[in-house]
Amino acid sequence: MTSSHQTSVRTQKDSAKPLSAEKVRVCDYCELRNRGFCSRLTDAQKSILSETARLVTVEPHKSIFRQGDETENIYVVRNGLLRLYQQHLNGRRQVIGFAKHGDLLLSPLSERNEYSADALDPVCLCHFRRQDFIGFFQRDPGFSSALAIAIHEELIRARQQIALLGQKRAEPKVAQFLLVLLESYAWRNAEATRVPVRIPQADIADFLGMTVETVNRTLARFTRDALISVAKRGIDFLDLRRLRQIAEST
Amino acid sequence: MTSSHQTSVRTQKDSAKPLSAEKVRVCDYCELRNRGFCSRLTDAQKSILSETARLVTVEPHKSIFRQGDETENIYVVRNGLLRLYQQHLNGRRQVIGFAKHGDLLLSPLSERNEYSADALDPVCLCHFRRQDFIGFFQRDPGFSSALAIAIHEELIRARQQIALLGQKRAEPKVAQFLLVLLESYAWRNAEATRVPVRIPQADIADFLGMTVETVNRTLARFTRDALISVAKRGIDFLDLRRLRQIAEST
DNA sequence: CGTTTATTTGAGACAACTCAAGTTGCGTGG
DNA sequence: CCACGCAACTTGAGTTGTCTCAAATAAACG
Predict the structure, then answer these.
(1) Which end of chain B is flanked by fewer CB atoms within 10 Å, N or C?
(2) Chain A neighbours among B 82-101 (CB < 8 Å)?
(3) Closest Cα of chain A to B55: distance in Å?
(4) What is the rounded distance in angstroms from the CA atom of residue A124 to the CA atom of residue A234?
(5) Interhelix angle for A43-52 vs A130-139, to 10°?
(6) Residue B85 and residue B60: Cα distance in Å, rounded?
(7) CB-based contacts of A58: which residues, under 8 Å, 6+ apart?
(8) Predicted TM-score (pTM) above 0.85
(9) Counting beta carbons within 10 angstroms of the beta carbon of residue A157, is it exposed (0 to 12), middle (13 to 18) or buried (19 or more)?
(10) Given a cut of 50, is residue B242 above it in pLDDT?
């Protein structure tokens, strides 16, 4: 175990059973019905799903599930931002992504969780028992194709990240990261210029394979150059054009 | 466009229609029947598939398909090694992986190819028309779940690569790369210590997000330290234990 | 056998890392 | 409400590993 900043294994003080778990009545009023995984399902399928779904809320910094544990539930995020990460043999932590509204967490195809997840801010999610899900999956071909599509989308996002990590210099990496982040929040008003959550710089560092210091200095430079402005609870984008330029620079 | 080594867009002199395309009679004698995508299918499904499948062979350095083109066919690799890569706006090339026997190339879920592929050595593959595949996919739930599983496996591999690229130093990167490569060849005799193809160092560099020079120097060091030995047509692994140590070092 | 492509080596610059110390923000308890 | 402690962020100075540039082999290919 090194003394480096990034690799410290944060021991979760309390890894938190879901705080509340109530039955989801209908998906009808859920804004996610046309977004992400759920949008792939027919109304009939959605109503079958909602039979077994439960709604849970999780406080900031609490863990939702852990890598290596048996996969009992799978989740769809309703609100809030989650940090997804893997822990490696050498103690290094690799943040593999951030999940937001509409994202499907875990796959019923894995017996064990491929990664850990915890909440960056107050989070609300639907969860389904993996067993139920597998049942649907086997009975209804529509389910499996919806799942295939969802996984496929995740694969494409993973490839995006691979392209990102393939970058050698810090500025394009951070710039691309910021832009992808913004994009994922801009699904409603296409011209949003604000990401309304605070992501710890340590997480960005572990996501991009850099040190906290470099992330910090890069963000500082962006701020100084008036490309972004970092507020208490989020980031504002001031000059998208120039940020895109940096992102695409070699 | 920069002058850097890695980013040169290799213009394929001849992007090669499949050299031969003959009907695949049966999957019965194919060694892949228990490996990769095909192993997920029932015999009945396999025989349906083989109705429309065609076998093609491709010479080294020829292109099989290109990123951005319409996805007409999808492929399963029988023999040989392929290089899969994306071309980015700034001219940078990101190698997203290497495909070998049993691997499924492209997804019927995308209308356009997500990446380009070309042959590193003589390659033999089965191909199916995407349309046919979609037909099966819609008619037979078994197909879609097989596809979901295949894509899921690819996703897990993509995450492996993300973890790899998250590494900061060159030695662990190259070591991990070599080990993953070996593993993918060791599915028959578990204790194989040889990878029987020559992969251009430029491809390794573009895969790992490093320069050719650094890849070369790192491989040279490994050779000098008798961890591996590089032959004309492949790599021999001399000290797996120590290589694993390096791969897991911070 | 000449031409092209890939690998190897060197020297130097520079960006990112390391280490160390300070600062800020925030929640907790007095 | 303030003092305290912890965690996150910031800044600086120095080191080092990787990149850059350039050039010399060595292989591959027609």
Answers:
(1) N
(2) 86, 88-92, 94, 96
(3) 26
(4) 19
(5) 150
(6) 16
(7) A16, A18, A19, A64, A80, A119, A122, A123, A124, A125
(8) yes
(9) middle
(10) yes
CA A157 / C1′ D21 distance in Å:
35
Please write the tens of the pLDDT for every residue from B91-123: 999 999 999 988 999 999 999 999 999 999 999
How large is the C-alpha radius of gyration of chain B? 19
What is the DSSP code string of B114-132? SSEEEESS-EEEEEEEHHH
What backbone phi and psi angles, to 5 degrees, belong to A68? Answer: 95, -25
Tracing tokens 């060849």 back to the chain, one arrives at B185
What is the rounded CA–CA span in Å between residue B157 and residue B235?
Answer: 22
Rounded distance between C-alpha atoms, residue B130 and residue B107, angstroms: 8
Helix (H) or strand (E) holding A145: helix A141-166
Nearest to B77, CA basis, from B105, B43, B112:
B105
Q: Which amino acid is at A80?
A: G
Could you tell me how many CB contacts below 8 A there are between chain A and chain B? 120
Name B residues 33-72 whose Cβ lies under 7 Å from strand D.
Answer: 60
